[in-house]
# Entry
Amino acid sequence: MDLETTGVENSDKICSIGIICTSKESTFSKYELVNEGKKIPSKASSINHITNEMIKDRPKLKDSEAWALLQEHNNQDSTIIAHNINFDLKMLGQSGFVWQGKIVNTLRVTKHLIPECEEFSLQFLRYELKLYKDEKKEALKYNAELLPHNALSDALHTKLLYEYLLDIKEHNELASLSFQNVFIEKFGFGKYSGRYIEEISMCDRGYLEWMLLQAKDLDEDLRYSISRFL
# Structure
């Protein structure tokens, strides 16, 4: 599953949803634009290519076929697989949907199993792990356009990434790793990008303490890793 939103703030809303549903009985996809009453700013449109005109006459998420599909499978026998799933579940929760099933967070699992990757964005992994080799065949199967930040296209690449990870660990282990913090050794951004957190803890401890106190949206794995050095 993948979502596109009007932004990443708490006040932002979902504007599209892409789902690839697989079971023993069938495999199919669902893609919908939805209108949650929040204007899409130009910055968001420049990323997901969804405009206000495109969602003008679209239903609310609760009235969509995608919502009905999620509700139908909202039980402990189902698993949602998403890249950075915490964000997706938070956005769904703001629309009134609370997932009761299992999860696999391909972002966190990839950090656990393939830590040597330079980056962990879905588009980087698409090329780094050569997921693109199977994407055209999969896109035809699910009637998906291969466009970055298109919810169905990203759901397709999440599926391909999940299948790549299944060659390393079984499904239950992937689900378990989704709840285990990743120990991060280096900063990947900011003024100390590329430097070891342990080194910064010795030369600029105050900076790390400031991050923990002031950066409310700090990645939970980075927060966990910084805390280990303080």
The longest helix spans residues 151-166. The chain has a mean pLDDT of 95. The radius of gyration is 19 Å. The CA atoms of residues 29 and 143 lie 8 Å apart.
